[in-house]
Amino acid sequence: MKIVRFSHNEAIRYGILDGTDLVTLAGDPMYAGYDTTGERVALSDAVLLAPVIPRSKIIAVGRNYREHAAEFGNEVPAEPLLFFKPNTSVIGPGDAIVRPTQSQQVDFEGELAVVIGKVTRNVSADDALSHVFGYSIANDVTARDLQRSDGQWTRAKGFDTFCPLGPAIETEFDPSQAELVARVNGDEKQRAPLTDMVHGIADLIAYASAAFTLLPGDVILTGTPAGVGPLSAGDVVEVEIDGLGILRNIVRDA
């Protein structure tokens, strides 16, 4: 089931994608459950938004693909390397990634996003996947020069528009059968099976939940494969994952 968040007639709602229609929902699927309303909206009449704006946090994982760590001359960490992105960095499909004036190199990083579905604290890896609401696509946009100069990653990863999410949350998805591909202006830049992750999804959830409570709607970005690179104003960047669709964003200067 693909759940989307959309705007229609100046109202923001959730819906279930059903062919060319959206079955509208009453309630918030991540936080309080939902019912169908009986109303349908043509997909062509709706504007898709980021499928979730986390009320709590976005947790991201660095260097979780060996070849990506190697392309920057880094070792793969023995344990997951976690950092946060603010919820104000989230944008949806079709929205513009804005290159801030403070940075001369803004990079794309295509990633699988995991959306948490219930309160999760000290969960075991064996039970971790039962706490997942669904999966989506993310782009962990990074001001690479600021990442190097700051010595830590908060500013470089946290600018407004630096976390595109979407287009939907798929509740029935098998990451072991999927591949991630990223393109800039139609040219392929990244391609890797999701099974290339060093630390798998269940282990990431268990590791993070041992440090801080995960809440419904929290998002975990699971790391990016090799092939990341810079974006210029006017570029169109796409991240595609089998079964989840294509997250497409344009790029512009501030």
UniProtKB/TrEMBL annotation:
InterPro entries: Fumarylacetoacetase-like_C, Fumarylacetoacetase_C_sf, Rv2993c-like_N
UniProt domain Rv2993c-like N-terminal: residue ranges: 1-51
GO MF terms held by the record: hydrolase activity
UniProt keyword Metal-binding, yes or no: yes
SUPFAM superfamilies attached to this UniProt entry: FAH (SSF56529)
Boundaries of every Fumarylacetoacetase-like C-terminal domain copy: 57-251
EC nos: 3.7.-.-
Keyword line: Hydrolase, Metal-binding
Enzyme category, top tier: hydrolase
PANTHER family (UniProt xref): ACYLPYRUVASE, ACYLPYRUVASE FAHD1, MITOCHONDRIAL
Protein name: Fumarylacetoacetate hydrolase family protein
Upper classification of the organism: Bacteria, Bacillati, Actinomycetota, Actinomycetes, Micrococcales
